[in-house]
Amino acid sequence: MSNFDFLKQSIPEVHPNALKTESALRIDASMVAIYARITLEQLVDYLYRARSLQNPYGKSTPTLVDRLRNPEFQNLVRHPALHDKMRLIRLAGNKAAHGNRISGDVAMQTVRDLHHLLVWAARYHSPYGSAIDPRAAFEVTKVPQLPGSAPQQKVSQKELIKLAEELEQAREAHQAQLAAKEAENKALQERLADLEAQLKTTFTETTPQDIRDYNEAETRTALIDVELELAGWDTSAENLREVSIPNIPIRKDGSLGTGKADYVLWGTDGKPLAVIEAKRASRDSHEGERQAELYAQGLYRMYGVYPVIITTNGTQHKLWDQWKDSPTGKPGYQVRSILAFPTRNDLERLHARRRAQPLNNAPISHDLVDRKYQINAVRSVGTAFDAENRRRALLVMATGAGKTRISMAIVKMLSDAGWVKNTLFLADRVSLVNQAVNAFRSHFRTEMSIVNLLTDKDTSGRVYGCTYPTIMNLIEQRKFSPGFFDLVVIDEAHRSVYSKYKQIFEYFDALLVGLTATPKDDVDHDTYELFGLNQGEPTDYYSLEQAVDDGYLVPPRGISLSTDFLSDGIHYDELSDDDKAKWDLIEWDEETHEKPNHIPSHLLNDYLFNKQTVDHVLSELMTQGYRVENGNKLGKTIIFAHNQNHANYIRQRFDALYPQYGGTFARVITHSTERAQSLIDDFSDPEKMPQIAVSVDMLDTGIDVPEVLNLVFFKPVRSYAKYWQMLGRGTRLCSDVFGPGTKKTDFKVFDCCRNLEFFRSDFKAPNGTPQKPQATRTFETTLALLVELDSHAGELSSADYESLRPALVGQLRTFINSLNTDSPFVRKHLHAVQRMQDESIWSSALNTEAQEQILSLAELGGNIGEGAPVALSFDLTIRKLQLDLLDGNIAAAKPRLERLRKIALGLSKLVDTIPDVERQKAHFDYVLSEAWGPQVSLAYLESIRQDVRGLLSLLSKSERKPFYTDFADHAHESIETEILLNTTGTVSPQEFEAKIQYRMRELLDNPAVQKARKGYALNDADMQELDAAFVASGEFTVDDILTVRQDHPNLGLYVRSMVGMDRKAVQKHLKEFIREDTTQAQLDLLKMLTDALVDDGTVEPKALYGIPYSDEYTIDYVWTSRVAQTVKNINDGLPQSVQGS
């Protein structure tokens, strides 16, 4: 008898491999994981067919991961617990396939998880579901005894052959799927072959034990009680635990009896607010949902109040707010995750919302919003929350459309209808928070108290304004419970907010409203996902184009300004003799005295500021800009500068060109400006100076000056959110700005950096990903280095391995041990944190599960080490360099080696004056010697890190020295440029790559492409030739090319990956390995390698040591290592000198 006998009738196609998975428990734990993964793939195939699911869009041969993540499939498999089990089976299979050992415990849990999945599938997705017991549990006693599994019993050759045949049949049965997923499953096939070889000698007797787990009582005592107490509940109260509830189904046959709820949380009126059902710590918190629902129904019959249902495993909690006692007849909400238990006040407000007034006809304050689109926006939020039963809404409104007033109207409507009591308004800048708080106070005054969490000591109120970092800190301090706010409003919701602060929205169990000025097609996928919306389908949308047509905003009028330098950069060879002489006198690099021969246009105004270039832009502004007071004075103008030095230089040149204004006409307003707010106030007053505000980031958003008539984009902008925010500084209406009866009808945008061209283009590079915090990046890099180090353990010297591994483990454990386990963000991962405190986990190579758990902790804000920020940055540089060298990525290592050389040069100058520096002189001498390079050992790099990191603070801040020049710069004619008010959206990274590949294939005759296809390194001239070809196509901008260059430092390898290698060139590179004594196996390897290089352009050298290239019986390690070195040389790019050989 088997635990999987039920599959014979319900899902027969899955039964054979399920049985093999179970039987493998008596043979080998790794086989369990591999067979379980194969069975999972079969199950997924079956579910796709049985429920007529379509493969993920654009995936003709989807991987298992693609199919599991398919929204259709996720909707079919609704319970997160089932998704988690599928994920764990997949990961266990991958781990086993890559040669990592699987413990007996993991094998047993894998089979249990597989059994749970198959019971669920047979019950709910097969024709014989009624015959399946949904609560059937896996029983170890039913695991079949295989021949030869008894201790000390020899296995016959016949039985070994039979098992080998079964393995082969299992592999052949999935050949089609495995071929379609070759990249993912190649390792799986290799591991199966390894296991077959192992079985030729003996079976491995494994006696798996059940995984140690908290039981119900331990879960309550160790985890849940603590969480309840933090939420203000008295866990010693007599009626809190084990509450008897009569007349509920307690047996499988449905017979009634008295059940005992784990916890019941009571209101001040003695009625139940919530019922909590606890399960074991490793169980998904969804489990127990039905049981808790029966308890809730019983309590409803007893008290007339339907309690909120909470299920928990101690660290993860699910809340189900059903409205069965609501007079509105609404069903309530779906199950949702919460990070901490609600307080009594939180629960009472949830119950109160069940009696809230419908929002379909709720009054909207016309004192706050009186325009039709504003009223529509407020009403659309009400519809989303009420009629559509959503909890999140996203409004895309043009800058200047009155988003703050709309948000106030939403707050008032929801408050008056009883939906909301407390509201949190979040913005990313202090000025925006202050602005919103002042607006709320000016309108609501006595109606509701407003709190600015940045400044107010009294934090009792109804509407709270705050920045994201401050509210994160307050959450960490548990100043607010998860249900304290009924509504959270996000000002300017976009990707960076989601990326950096998503934990805020996970913590607060609140309705969520997002506001953004970015056009709906340019809002990124992550933002729509945060609000549970389809891409390009916000809750409500009011575009700048529509606002202009309706007469509520004015349009921009674009003027492109350019010069030779702004367009093409500065080329030494193109300068006049006088300017060359000036160039030669500049001290470009005080250390090396090297002189560049070209300054790219994107670096102009970054650290080099040319007088004639800036003067031209200011002259064009003063002559073409809109003027007021009968043309006698330039209208209010904002110049967006590149950086502080640029802003200061712009003002300096303006004052030199126009001394008649006495130095008050143009002022710098940045975060570095003292009393900047007073200058902003003066700029906002049409009767006061300055007329020109030169800003760096500070005035991009949040300033509302209707009199602004001119904007100057004197820096490159590639963020859609920022671009539209900047344009919004000029869109406000302004009557009588040119005199009585003459209103503002548009505003001018002077673009000096091809921004209008970029945002007008149909083809745009993808948005960048916001950078993670340094501690997170260091943690992730250190973990990756540890995993890679362990995988190369047999290849490294004992000095490298033994010196580096303890340091890596120490850094990771320092980070984990520093986590605040009282933080609600950390408690969600408490099981992983506690597990990683077990020293035995770290004593050997981390398995896949441990890696996943550790990685999940990366964004929790731990400390990665002691020292100043520069020391921590130095740690990250060393870790990345060690990882590059371990991976053989010399191209990536070179700039890091050079950075260390510059640090050593700077510190070496302090050797004679500071004893601590003098003690490390040997390090500096070596780094500055000719011996310094990619051959440096990992152990020596570690000693440098430990010895030098504390000295970094002695170096002055490494800012690039600014250069101020006066070269002749030819001005181009200004061009009127259309500004599109309704863009078509961005392309995905995949489409971007596809477009590059398409263009690359059209350039096969290009000498640089031909050179790359032959395996040779590309020099600067080759790269410039490629750049020119791509820009000339009209489909790519210079910034697109820069993006590719930054993402792919080894451009030759990138080109080859796009178009493959030339077959004759490959054969030429490999011909030295074809000799009279070359074996057939070696010839086969060379043929496969040649085909792979021709098709894919690159092969990982380490792949040559495994299937399909080699096997452990025929491999000649010396010969193969020589071939691998040649492949590595090709990947790195062969030097120019070998082309003729």
UniProtKB/TrEMBL annotation:
Gene Ontology BP annotations: DNA restriction-modification system
Assigned GO CC terms: cytosol
Location of the Helicase ATP-binding domain: 384-537
Occurrences of domain Helicase C-terminal (ranges): 613-777
GO molecular function: ATP binding; DNA binding; helicase activity; type I site-specific deoxyribonuclease activity
Keywords carried by this UniProt record: ATP-binding, Coiled coil, Helicase, Hydrolase, Nucleotide-binding
CDD domains assigned to the protein according to its UniProt record, in alphabetical order: DEXHc_RE_I_III_res, SF2_C_EcoAI-like
Database matches in Pfam families: EcoEI_R_C, Helicase_C, HSDR_N, ResIII
Domain of life: Bacteria
PROSITE patterns (alphabetical): HELICASE_ATP_BIND_1, HELICASE_CTER
InterPro entries (UniProt xref): EcoEI_R_C_dom, Helicase/UvrB_N, Helicase_ATP-bd, Helicase_C-like, Helicase_Restrict-Modif_Enz, P-loop_NTPase, Restrct_endonuc_type1_HsdR_N
Coiled coil regions in record: 153-205
This protein's name: Helicase C-terminal domain protein
